[in-house]
Protein: Neprosin PEP catalytic domain-containing protein
Amino acid sequence: MLSKIEELELEEQLKLLNKPSIKTVKMKPTLVRSKQNSSASASNWSSRIWSEDGGCPFGTVPIKKITKEDLIRQRNMPPPEDHVTSDPELTTLAIVRIPKNPHNKFGGAGMANSLWNPLVEGQQHSACRLKIQKGSDILQVGWRVDPTLYSDNKTRLFVHFQAGNKQCFNVLCSGFVLVSHDTPIDMVFEDISQPGQGGSWEATMYIERDNVSGNWWFLFEESYKQIGFWPQQIFTELRGFADNIEWGGVAYSPPGVPKPPMGSGIFPVGNTDDAYCRRLSVLNDDGATIDVDRTTIYVDDPNLYRVLD
Structure:
């Protein structure tokens, strides 16, 4: 039960989040890899998951109407993974990462990741993510199965940011600015990989900094389609460059509940049934692609989850 004060707080949040839609975002990023218009092959995702007529009219974007139930679910979510990874009894990582180094200056990263639908129940969740970080400022993109966040068990696209003590998924608070007219930020991936099918469905995702504005952009598929951005003003340390990058899986289970599967739910052995992140890419502070040659593996619970690099 919510108190009267909490009810009023939620109503105020809803008023702010469900403002009348803006017809256009008057901003063209100066990104090295970005293309404003996606190719036909890269637009297959949006044609399958959005609408038969191609989505919203050009100049408008598909803003989800936030409900009180959405905000209540977000309040009931466990703390962000990066607040609780010191307790592997709750959240478990299976990742490849570039170790933190104060001399690192990364302007972005990318991956092609296979799409799966691990079985989760109750407050559990399981995800694959690309994460960039500096200090307490964090950006994540990937797919996620999370009944608490989405009220279903489907594999969905997600974005998440943490700026100091503030953190938020998707567009459940002010922060991420959606600009794509045909790619909802919590879209369902309908085509999911299955063990034994001889290959995997995958999606390609990038986070890239615009070195003119300082904004961080989420780019989708090999066409580098612009989905949206986080304004640099919301950050403290990511107003500059990142010094840490991670690729891989994360799973959460409440205390006393066995941990859920991650990825395909099968230990990787180097064949087509493996869940994977491939074509890992990193940008330097000039926006140029650099070699990913000094990664390390980190796994909280090697009895349940494994990583091959």
